[in-house]
Amino acid sequence: MDAKDILGLPKTPLSITQEKKSRPQKDSQRKPDGISREVYALTGGVAPLMPSIDVSQLKRRPPSDEKITWQWLPFTSSARKDNLQLYHWARDYSFAKYNKSVDVIRYTDEEYEKHLTDPKWTKEETDQLFDLCERFDLRFIIIADRFPTPRTVEELKDRYYSVSRTILVARAPSPGEVAGHPLVKEPYNVTQEIERKRALSMVLSQTKHQERKDAEVLAEAKRIAESRMAARAAEEPDLPIASDIGPESAERAVGPGDTISPSNVQVPAPAAAPSTSLRVYLRTYALEQMVQAASSSAGLRTIKRVEQTLQDLEVNLKPKVPTKAVCAEHLELRKEILTLLNLQKQLQYKEAEGSSFRDGSYGDMPGSAKRSQRAADQDRTFVLDTISFGVIPGDRGVKREQKRKGPGRASETSSSPAGAHKRPRKMKASDL
Amino acid sequence: MGKPEDGEKKKKIKDVEISVPIVYGNAAFWLGKKASDYQSHKWTVYVRGATNEDLSVVVKQVVFQLHSSFNNPTRVVDSAPFELSESGWGEFEIAITLFFHNDVCEKPLNLYHHLKLYPEDESGPMSTKKPVVMESYEEIVFTEPSESFLARVQNHPAVTLPRLPAGFILPPPVPVEDESKRKRGDTKDHPLSQWFLNFSEADELLQLAAARQQVQAHIAKLKRQISMTGRNNQQFKPL
Q1: Whole-Å CA distances, B105 to A49, A317, A389, B83
Q2: Which GO molecular function entries does the Swiss-Prot or TrEMBL record give (chain B) (predicted)?
Q3: Do A236 and B140 lie within an 8 Å CB cutoff?
């Protein structure tokens, strides 16, 4: 029964065979075995180029190679009032395989006297520690909580691991035999652990500002390292690494066990940045690095706005004559433009705040349609004032004044007043 | 480490920065009637001192890496003027590698120049007399120059030394060999010198200063507006 039947159209022999042929093909293509159609559709629908999920895995039962044993066990039913004991087959507890415990090494009293005495630990305390370790499977947070005398987690760990290590080594027939044991191979380093946790908590409690600064500094370090790698064409045995950050030390600074605090990442301030660490460099390259560093915390849109402003000011995005003085001025100009854009945003927010207070509609967001009109109007006058860069001393200034199309349009170019960022930016600098 | 006697020469001097202003690029002449399909232009790619001074006091050798369709695309130029002339029809990127003297810098430096044959204005007439020129200004900065390098260049016009820190004693200048005996490496009278572009930092500095002034004025204005708006908002704040 299909459309043709309903319409009463004759079925041509060709179409019948086609249907017959295509249907089984389409069927196997469309409906996968093992899971229902809806579930399959969730994974991206019909016929992925490469199946992202192995369909056969979806309805698999637990691996049958597990040891499942059955035991003929007695039981009593709680529903019966007599104590009739019946028997039945019971499967072993399937979760028993998860009941692992740690092999805590227990020392004898003689061993304690011989190897394990320590000025900071009494035997009683050490015994208590080991009891707790065994009981709580080396969950030191719990052990520290339950420990009778106040001890830090690091102290407890230190005592446990050094005692275990000493016992292992003492009991081993030869030192070589235990050299491979993890307790022997990697001794617990208290100071390093304390330092690591301190650094971790510092990173966790960083303010947003701090975070941004760190990202900046790290990006700078990475760039210096990369540019140094690039500049290093051949082996340089006598090349002194002037700055403290080389590719190796940069990695060490962020590696485990070391502090991640910014004070330890010794990178020269962005102003001096790559210039002081590379011995020979091209000035345009250095300027590029410094520009990137200065705008590392800015988003892509902000960077585009900076470039647009530079164009409006008739300044080359990349200086045509990059001398030392020119590069310095260029960098300063970019920084000042960033400041300018930030202040504009600040002003917009203040304005929006003001509007919401006046309206009495505190719930509105700055960009909402209802108020954006008025806010935009207000902004336009301010923005016009600030972005009218058409007045430049010299002939070119006069020409550009004449070309400017009108107050309303000028505001659309660089900055985005409250509602304007929703409109596509069609204006170009040349339109001014 | 180098040999003991090299150690003296290679002693690094901190706080002094030597910068070498250069210009690199190409000039291309259309061959007009003599142009064929594969040789429509005759062009020269070069690296010169920004004021056309001789760069060989700093640069030992320049290698121009041409498009692979050229025979022996790696062209080595051992003496100033560091240039290479060829003929062809296509525009492509040329990798220019500068090798410096041992006491200047042991690593080479790379510049990239896109060969320009055709004028900006595509519709305009092409001339066989006036070449299409594309040049880029760059400065190579040597921080911590070696003593011998500094001694060699301290009075050389191709090199810029900044104001030296107070009390700095320059190493004794190396006596310059007789100028006339050496082949001229400067490009002051180079056949192409009439087409060289002029790079003046004064214009750019002026533009930048004017721009900064404008931006600073607007910043001041915004700050005033922000504080004013803040005060206005105070009146309307909900209780």
Answers
A1: 55, 30, 45, 21
A2: translation initiation factor activity
A3: no
- Rounded CA gap, A263 and B170, in Å? 37
Q: For the segment B50-96, what is each residue's pLDDT rounded down to a tens digit?
A: 989 999 999 999 999 999 999 999 999 999 899 999 999 999 999 99
Tell me if A415 is assigned to some domain: no
Chain A residues close to B232, C-beta within 8 Å: 354
Say which amino acid occupies B32. Answer: G
Residue range A173-207, pLDDT digits in tens: 887 888 888 888 888 999 999 999 999 998 888 88
DSSP string, B175-202: PPPPGGGSPP---TT-TTGGGPPP--HH
State residue A355's pLDDT score. Answer: 81
The domain total for chain B is 1
pLDDT at A87: 93
Q: Is residue B109 part of a domain?
A: yes
User: How many independent structural domains does chain A possess?
Assistant: 2
Asked, for residue A125, whether it belongs to a domain, the answer is yes
Q: Which two tokens stand for residue A331?
A: 């960098």
pLDDT tens string A253-277? 343 333 333 333 333 333 344 444 5
Name the domain boundary from A311, A342, A357: A357
Q: Shortest CB distance from B143 goes to which of A238, A276, A347? A: A276
Q: Is residue B179 part of a domain?
A: no
**A325 shares contact with chain B (CB less than 8 Å):** yes
Final residue of a structural domain among A357, A391, A407? A357
Q: Looking at the domain assignment, is residue B110 inside a domain?
A: yes
Please state whether the predicted TM-score (pTM) of the whole model is above 0.80. Answer: no
C-alpha dist (Å) from residue A143 to A155, A160, A195, B108, B175:
11, 11, 21, 61, 80
- Give me the interface pTM, i.e. the ipTM: 0.86
Distance CA A376, CA A417 (A): 6
- Check which CATH number belongs to the domain holding B58 and give it: 2.60.40.1970
Tell me whether residues A233 and B108 touch, CB distance under 8 A: yes
Residues of A in contact with B162 (CB under 8 A): 324
Q: Is residue B79 part of a domain?
A: yes
Name the residue range of residue B42's domain.
19-164+186-200
A429 touching B, CB under 8 A? Answer: no
List the 3-32 stretch of A: residues with Cβ below 8 A of B: none
Q: Is the peptide bond before B81 cis (omega within 30 degrees of 0)?
A: yes
CA A302, CA A299: separation in Å to the nearest integer? Answer: 5
B212: chain A residues, CB-CB within 8 Å: 329, 332-333, 336
Q: How far is B213 from chain A (nearest CA, A)?
A: 9
Q: State the smallest CA–CA distance between residue B19 and chain A in angstroms.
A: 9
Residue A276, pLDDT score: 43
- Residue B208 and residue A275: Cβ atoms within 8 Å? no
